[in-house]
Amino acid sequence: MKEWTREERYRILMDPMELWELHEKAAASPYRQSFHIQSVTGLMNDPNGFVWHDNQWHLFYQWCPWGAMHGLKHWYHIVSKDLITWRNLGVCLFPDRGDGYDNKGTYSGSAIPIGEDLYLYYTGNHRDADWTRRAYTCLAKLRKDGWTEKYPLPLFGQHPDYTEHQRDPKLICREDGYYILLGAQSKDLRGRALVYRSDDLLHGWTFAGELKVPGFEEFGDMWECPTIEHIGGHDVLLFCPQHLKLTGRGESVNHNGYIMGSMDWKTLTFTPDGQFHVLDFGFDSYAAACANNLENTDEAILIAWMGLPDVSYPTDEEDWAGCLTLPRELTVRGRRLIQRPLPGLKKLRDEKLSLTANEAGCYALPAAAELEADCRPGDMELHLFTRSDGSGGLNIYYSQEKHQITVDRSGMDVRFNREQGESRSRPLEDGLSHLRIFIDHSSVEIFVNDGDAVFTSRIFPTAEERFFHADGDMFLRLWTLKKAVTDRFVI
Asked: What is the CATH topology of the domain spanning 343-481?
């Protein structure tokens, strides 16, 4: 694997045509997605600034143009009318070319409309000549005509009582004022969230205090992408604790999850009502972001990076990496979050396929497809991405005795990040009744029991791994899916 120098990682983009050959190389990959958001070149990671504005959805993502590595980050802009089909608009935020507050990257954040303009709250990653890092919370205005104007000064700098790891401002609008929730790390290397407050979205931000979460004072050494959402009468703290191990998550040390509870904004205390729950039980999901300014407070819309920090993927060798998950409806059922595919995804269904098995009892599996299974009581096995004889592949098992579903990708020909573990499980108290599975060229998203659990994973099947077979009492339906995301080269 290529070793990138600092100069290569932080190379300034001067001309879009510098990237043309990289784009052509990526576009030729058999692993380019059909209905998932992906970068035009290089690496993408966190979704940013997810918001409804000017009669369309706006979404941005972290983008490093030169290859599958983390370096000089930009905000890349895409839009959609329906959250299903997406269109590239190009780079919205470039890092400063001099010694500005974001000279080494425009890091993650959120957005809010004010009048006809869209305001972007982001972390400016600054490095001094000696490479000392300083973090700033910055503001930019995206005008209706498409031009972006950065405010000349940051809203505030990093707090001196914490390390330089302070990032990912999430704007929260309330009747009593405006708040910014910021991921942070204490001087003794504990994950924290900081709270800033103002009566004006554009000025007067002051430090309100540290978010108190009783019982979680020593939960990871950094909290990324924190947000507090109010869904169906419940407060939900979503965040990404780093560098800790969780039961059932193998050797993975970066997680995305949530705590149900109640938030007191006067005391800045989030009182948990239960434990930390993993948001996604698959192998590859992180930095989840919820859309701002939704009118329906019974639900949220969530999208996440289909990847993890500090790991590599097979397309790294092709100089590109990363995609986003499908957007999901987020509701509360009991004391857990429920994630459902958007109803509009049914518009992508193209042809309903008749299931005709070969001599080995296997069915052909399209590269972009939706598979639905109604499951009756009993053990079940569903083997995806097998060879024509049924061997290998990604295996989904349900044990009636254990009341547990397991996804295992160790049977794939292309194996990666094996040290993170190749099997993930989830208990199902009420058994297994339904699976809805979205398959793209290099990913699979498995929704269990109408959103009770979801397994999101990158997979990289070879040309021979294009079949599936099932064992157990279930009724299967299979559709090919239309292309929904343009791969158009726009910088």
From this structure: Jelly Rolls (2.60.120)
Residue 27 CA to residue 307 CA, distance in Å, equals: 19
Instruction: Give the separation between CA 307 and CA 62, rounded to whole angstroms.
Output: 12
**pLDDT tens-place string over residues 126-171:** 999 999 999 999 999 999 888 999 999 999 999 999 999 999 999 9
CA dist list (Å): 186 to 93, 132, 244, 321, 471:
29, 18, 16, 31, 51
CA distance 287 to 305: 6
CA distance 240 to 364: 38
Decide: helix, strand or coil at residue 16. helix
E strand segments, 94-161? 106-114, 117-127, 133-142, 148-150, 156-157
pLDDT digits (tens, 9 = 90+) for 10-49: 999 999 999 999 999 999 999 999 999 999 999 999 999 9
Across residues 180-204, what is the average pLDDT? 98
> What are 221's two structure tokens?
């050494």
In a 10 Å sphere around its CB, with 0-12 CB exposed, 13-18 middle and 19+ buried, how is residue 110 labelled?
Answer: buried
Task: Tell me, letter by letter, the H, E, C secondary structure of 348-360.
Answer: HEEEEECCCCCCC
Q: Give pTM, 2 decimals.
A: 0.97
CA distance 322 to 76: 13
Separation CA 52–CA 49 (nearest Å)? 10
Identity of the residue numbered 343: P
Domain spans, the chain:
6-341, 343-481
Structure-block tokens of residue 359: 């001599």
Joined tokens for residue 386: 């097998």
If pLDDT is split at 50, 70 and 90, which confidence band does 296 have? low
Closest by Cα among 236, 241, 215, 217 to 297: 236
CA atoms of 214 and 73, how far apart (whole Å)? 34
342's CB contacts (< 8 A; 6+ apart) are 83, 84, 301, 326, 327, 328, 329
Q: Round to whole Å and give the CA distance between 91 and 238.
A: 27
Tell me the Ramachandran region of residue 417: left when phi exceeds 0, alpha when psi lies from -120 to 50, beta otherwise.
left
pLDDT band for 295, please (50, 70, 90 cuts). Answer: low
Structural class in CATH, domain 6-341: mainly beta
8 A C-beta contact, residue 331 and residue 338: yes
Residues marked active site are found at: 46
